[in-house]
Design goal:
11 helices, 228 residues, Arc Repressor Mutant, subunit A, single chain, Tetracycline Repressor, domain 2, mainly alpha, 0% strand
């Protein structure tokens, strides 16, 4: 069967693009794979489906990632990298500690709200008892910075006499994560059970304010708080 010249040229151009931009192709695969894993889990995601939705082929996916588990781990690492890169861009080191903590909580709430695939992949990884996360030095290194940021903010707040003593930075991180994570992980069930769309813009804005307030009331000395 003769292949139309235009079709042959199109395929050639696509192949040339992949060769010229291997990192772009690899990132495209990871981003599409994250959506598939978040939707279908590790066992339910299909390499054929991921290949069909990317600028790649099944063979290329195996070339870059080895197998489906390798692709899943790369997608998981990328999801954690995105949230840590976002934190790094906040540039809060020069802010007063209360404002820095507020900005960090707001960012975490917004990032989780805007990246539901990250929450779902973390849920999936918990189903697997963090088996794949344990294989990754990348994720371990990334999350050192997460605690490091809170340690720096908390130490500054203690030095300035505005934070309560005796708290652990890891526990502060836990509380922030818990509030922001639950907002995405349980949104559908809460909405259905209680007959209210907790994902609506108005409800989300209210939850965002409350999340910030709860964390600040936990960490900041009562006499140093302003507002309600």
């Amino acid at each position: 069967m003769n292949v139309p010249v235009s079709s042959s040229r199109s395929k050639a151009r696509d192949g040339a693009t992949r060769i010229q931009d291997p990192e772009g192709t690899r990132q495209n695969i990871i981003e599409v794979a994250a959506q598939e894993f978040a939707l279908n889990g590790l066992s339910g995601a299909r390499i054929d489906e991921i290949a069909a939705k990317t600028r790649s082929s099944k063979r290329m996916i195996y070339y870059y990632f080895g197998n489906k588990e390798g692709l899943y781990l790369s997608a998981l690492e990328n999801a954690y990298r995105q949230v840590r890169d976002g934190e790094a861009k906040l540039d809060i080191a020069g802010l007063p500690p209360i404002e820095a903590l507020q900005r960090l909580v707001e960012f975490t709430f917004d990032h989780h709200h805007q990246h539901e695939e990250f929450i779902r992949m973390v849920m999936i990884e918990n189903i697997h008892h963090a088996e794949f996360l344990a294989r990754s030095d990348v994720i371990a290194d990334l999350n050192v910075t997460a605690i490091g940021n809170i340690e720096a903010i908390y130490a500054k707040g203690l030095a300035e006499g505005v934070f309560r003593p005796g708290l652990e930075p890891l526990e502060i991180h836990w509380q922030i994560s818990a509030l922001c994570f639950f907002n995405v992980a349980n949104r559908a069930t809460f909405s259905k059970i209680f007959g209210k769309d907790v994902g609506s813009p108005a409800f989300q804005e209210s939850l965002r304010r409350q999340t910030v307030e709860m964390v600040l009331r936990f960490v900041v000395l009562a006499e140093k708080l302003t507002g309600p």
